[in-house]
Amino acid sequence: MKKINRWRKIRLLWELPLISAFNRWPLCEKFNIYSGGKDQQSKSFDEALKKLVRHSSAFEEADQQGWLPVHEAAAQLNKNILEITLRASRDITWEQTTLKGETPLLVAVRRCFVENVHFLLLNGCNPNVKNEEGDSPLVIAIKHDSYNIASLLLRSGARVNLRCVHERTALHEAARLGRKDLVQLLLESGADPDPRSGYGLTPLALAAQMGHTEIMELLLQRGETLLCRAKDCASILFEAAGGGNPDSVSLLLEYGADANVPKHSGHLPIHRAAYRGHYLALKYLVPVTDFAAIKESGISPVHSAAAGAHPQCLELLLQSGFDANFMLAQRVRKGYDDHRKSALYFAVSNGDICSTQLLLNAGALANQDPINCLQIALRMGNYELMNLLLRHGANVNYFCRVNTTHFPSALQYALKDEVMLRMLLNYGYDVHRCFDCPRASGSHSQYVTDGWTSTVIKDTMFCEVITLSWLKHVSGKVVRVMLDYVDHIKICCKLEAVLKEQELWPDINSILTNPRSLKHLCRLKIRACMGRLRLRCPVFMTFLPLPNCLKDYILYKEYDLYGQENFTGIYNLNCA
C-alpha cells in the first residue's frame, strides 16, 4: 500500500508543469510528503525528474519571473537535480537570463551553492556575465563573503579587473566591505591595486571611507598611491576623515598623506571630521592642519562642528586655539540664503544649547550675522537660547532689514508670550519707542487699519501694529506689561481707542493718569545709568554697594518668569 502511495505522489509530481515540480521539491522535503528517509525522497524525486526529461519542450518554459527549469535547478541544494536538468536543456538556455538578468550561474552564486557553481563552470557557463544591476558573479560572491566561490570563479576564467556597477572592480567591492581574505585573493590573482571607479574612487579610498584599516595597510603595501583624488577632488585622507576611524587617519598620516589638500568645495579633512563628529580622528588632524589652508578654505572647522551639532568636537577645537569669531568668507556665505557668517549662528539655528554655551563662553559675539542670532531663538521660541544670548550681549534692540518697524523687531515675536516679553524688557528693550507716535493726538492714516499693504512698510508705529484686527485682543495685556518698564508716558488716540475695549483698561488708565511710585522711578533711573550691557552682566552687579533685595528689584526679578520657571504664558498683572 505504501509503495502505491509513493508512486501516486511521484506521478503527481511528474504530471505537474516542470517549473512547479521544482518549486514543490523544498516543500515536499520540509513537510515530509514522501515516505521513507531523506535519501529515498531524493532518489524518488530524481527518478521522477528522469521521466520528465522525455518532455524536452518543458525545459524551455519560463514562469512569470522569467525562470527556466535550469534556473530553478541551480537554486536547489541537490546537485543531481541540476545535472539532470542541464543535460535535458538545450545549450542556449544555459545563458538565458531571468527578468532580473540572472543566468543559472548567477543564481547559484547568489545562493552560495559551491557544487552547483562548480558544475556550471565545468559545463562552460560564462563567469563574466552581469545581472541587471551590473554585478558579475565574482562581485556577487564577494558581497556574500564566499571565498570558495570567488576562488573557483577566478580559476575558471573570471576577469579579476572586470568593470561593473559605477565602473567598480571586484577589488573595489572587497575593499569597501572589509573582506581582507578576498582582497588578498584578488591581488594574488593579478587585480590592479589602483583602479578608478566612475566617481574617481580607488579601493583604498573606499576602504578609508568605511574605516577598514587592515585592508588600507594591505593596499598601501602593494603600492596603491595616496595622491589620487575623486572627481570632487576629495583626497583619500578626506574620505578617511569622513569614515571616522582614527586608526585609518593615523595610518594615512604615517604614509605621508597631506591634511591640507582641499576638495573642490574648499573643505579639508578637518572640516569633514568635525562635521561628522569624529572626535578621535579630529585629534589627529588638528596638529597637522595649517591655519593658512583653513583661511584659504573660507570656513573654520568650528563652523563645521557647530553645523553638525557636535559640542565635544567644538570644545576640542576651541581648546586647541581656534577662533570662535572666525567668519565665513564671502564666497561661502553666498551658499546660504541667510548669508550667515558666524559659527554661533549655526549652533543657534540647530537649537544646540551646549554648542551655543561653549561658543559664547569662548568669546563668540552674538550680533555678527545679517539675521540676528536672537531673532532665530525668538522665532524658535527657545527660552534657554534667548536667555543665553541676552546674557552674553545679544542686542535686544536689533532691527530686521525687511518690514522695519519704528520699534525694535524682537517685540513682534513676543506679543502673545509674556515669558518672552518680560525677558526682552528685563534685558533693556527700548519700550519708549513703542509709545513714540508722531500723531499722538491727531488722526492716523487708515491704510493699515485692516492689514498690511502690498508695499514694503518702513517705520511702522507700534500703535498701528497692536491695533490690527488679529492682535488687538492682546493689546491690553501687552501695554500693561510695558508700563512696568517706563515712567510717565502718553498714548496716542488710536491706541487709546482700542485699549478702552480691553478688560485691563481700568488698570492701564490708573497708571497713565497717576504719578508713578518713587521706588519705581528710582529703579528706572538706576537702570538708565547702568546701561544695558552692565545690566546683563552678573559680575558687575556684585560690585554695586546695594543689598541683594535692591539688586533683585533693579533687575526686575519679581517679573523674571523664566528664572521662576513660570512658563504658563498667562499674563499675571499687578499695578506698580
UniProtKB/TrEMBL annotation:
Keywords: ANK repeat, Repeat, Signal
ANK repeats: 100-132, 133-165, 166-198, 199-231, 232-264, 297-329, 369-401
Domain of life assignment: Eukaryota
SUPFAM superfamilies xrefs: Ankyrin repeat, SOCS box-like
Signal peptide: 1-21
Xref: SMART domains: ANK, SOCS, SOCS_box
PANTHER family: ANKYRIN REPEAT AND PROTEIN KINASE DOMAIN-CONTAINING PROTEIN, ANKYRIN REPEAT AND SOCS BOX CONTAINING 14
Protein name stated in the entry: Ankyrin repeat and SOCS box containing 14
Organism: Malurus cyaneus samueli
Lineage, broadest ranks: Eukaryota, Metazoa, Chordata, Craniata, Vertebrata
